[in-house]
Recover the amino acids of this structure.
């Protein structure tokens, strides 16, 4: 029950839902106090605008994507014993595949994991269960299928019990501990990496991060930074998801 409550609470704190809630509260408050009602409505509008401006949101994203990309030079000198790739969602009932497959985010991760395996020859563990009960196939099972069929990579371990990043780490450690493996290359999105490192190091791993899909590659100024965009708001929602998730993990698990 707590798991579902947290998911709903996170969605309500994401843009534009949070801003809409603030403005609706302002409209309701107008009946009793026009002054405070207007303050809430204007605040919601200002936050909505700010959340879509790249020049405001970009510094936040840069701060979150602080883990540098893994270089090939460093890759050849490290002593990791396995590659662990985290699930990032499923694409359910995909009509073009006549069934479930991996989401776009998960596809990006397993593509990079396949690349790293070609470079290192290390075994791969895929981790991700069924987040909701109505999902029939685990993320790990879908990831293994795509890795083997589409990228011709091999998967040695499937972890199918986890429902979040913390559980990814805990269940993966139980599997790899049996093989006396605690040094891993961890594959996930750049913005997701800080929360992932926190979780996997807490589980007992020595982590070599392998982040991907950076939003903050360019640090220069351009006029486009002043133009509101839906893409910026979407990126901010990921930032807030990671921030809330990290705070929740520290409160609940640590």
């Amino acid at each position: 029950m707590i798991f579902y409550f947290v998911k709903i609470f996170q969605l309500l704190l994401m843009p534009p839902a949070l801003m809409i809630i603030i403005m609706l509260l302002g409209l309701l408050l107008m009946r009793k106090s026009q002054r405070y009602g207007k303050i809430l409505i204007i605040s919601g509008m200002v936050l909505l605008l700010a959340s879509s401006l790249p020049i405001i949101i970009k510094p936040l994203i840069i701060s979150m994507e602080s883990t540098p990309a893994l270089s090939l030079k460093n890759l050849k000198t490290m002593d990791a014993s396995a590659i662990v790739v985290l699930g990032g969602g499923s694409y359910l009932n995909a009509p073009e595949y006549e069934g479930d497959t991996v989401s776009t985010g998960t596809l990006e991760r397993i593509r990079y994991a396949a690349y790293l395996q070609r470079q290192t020859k290390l075994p791969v563990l895929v981790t991700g269960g069924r987040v909701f009960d109505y999902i029939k196939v685990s993320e790990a099972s879908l990831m293994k299928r795509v890795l083997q069929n589409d990228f011709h990579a091999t998967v040695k371990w499937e972890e199918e019990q986890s429902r979040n990043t913390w559980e990814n780490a805990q269940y993966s450690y139980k599997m790899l501990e049996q093989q006396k493996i605690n040094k891993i290359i961890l594959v996930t999105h750049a913005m997701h990496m800080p929360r992932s490192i926190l979780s996997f190091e807490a589980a007992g791993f020595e982590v070599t991060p392998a982040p991907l899909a950076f939003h903050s590659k360019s640090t220069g100024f351009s006029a486009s930074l002043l133009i509101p965009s839906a893409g910026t708001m979407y990126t901010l929602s990921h930032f807030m998801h990671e921030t809330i998730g990290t705070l929740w993990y520290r409160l609940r698990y640590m």
User: Anything to note?
Assistant: The longest strand covers residues 183-189. DSSP finds ten helices and seven strands in the chain.
